[in-house]
């Protein structure tokens, strides 16, 4: 997920790094020192002030040459952001974490790569809970939810894209300090609005990337098996979609209504319909209707 610039500044007039004193820039040197280590997953952490899309940039870089697994690209601000289904995502400069990572899970069968967005969701939720002190939940397949007041709000999202034959770029966007008057839509939220005890982006990013390294390592060591790695069980435990009546808006202008009862071994959401059958959904938009 890659947030689009909503500041109104022209593309050739980048926002000052210190234009909002409540939103200091990331410390790229400290991030590299805290994340890049011998034997670790993260080999390089690049922070740019402004770009169109970190996902697009990293996919293009991976296509140009032999870019190693473990490259992280972080942007303070983005001007051509997109989420799933090419939706726009707006966020002011330095109001969140907007980054992409390159993974090359050679040991894992390609058929299991569909678990990567769900794995990233688990890692992000785990990392944020530890560092921000905010209860988070996952909406299948790629949204991060927080509670603002008594409302469930979307505070982040994930976008995975193939990068050549052996790579995947995963983009993450998280609203950190977004204020109520800055919300792009009423159903959006942020860690700050959810009562986070820590909104420092440097420790939050370190916590999320360390959690992602941990979960990716477990999954890769298990050959991508979601049960053996503990990923399937953990995702189900944190998934706010399960146990709800939902409407799945499917490709081809079709829809399916049912109770979300499970996430299967392929990462698909299983709906129990009124017809008495269980239908797996592998792609589409999910609308939460009510608790079952």
UniProtKB/TrEMBL annotation:
Superkingdom, taxonomy of origin: Bacteria
Top enzyme class: ligase
Record carries keyword Aminoacyl-tRNA synthetase: no
Domain BPL/LPL catalytic: 30-220
Record-linked InterPro entries: aa-tRNA-synth_II/BPL/LPL (IPR045864), Biotin_CoA_COase_ligase (IPR004408), BPL_C (IPR003142), BPL_LPL_catalytic (IPR004143)
Keywords (A to Z) from UniProt: Biotin, Ligase
Pfam family, one: BPL_LplA_LipB
GO function terms (MF aspect): biotin--[biotin carboxyl-carrier protein] ligase activity
Entry EC no(s): 6.3.4.15
Region ranges (Disordered): 1-25
Protein name: biotin--[biotin carboxyl-carrier protein] ligase
Species the sequence originates in: Streptomyces violaceorubidus
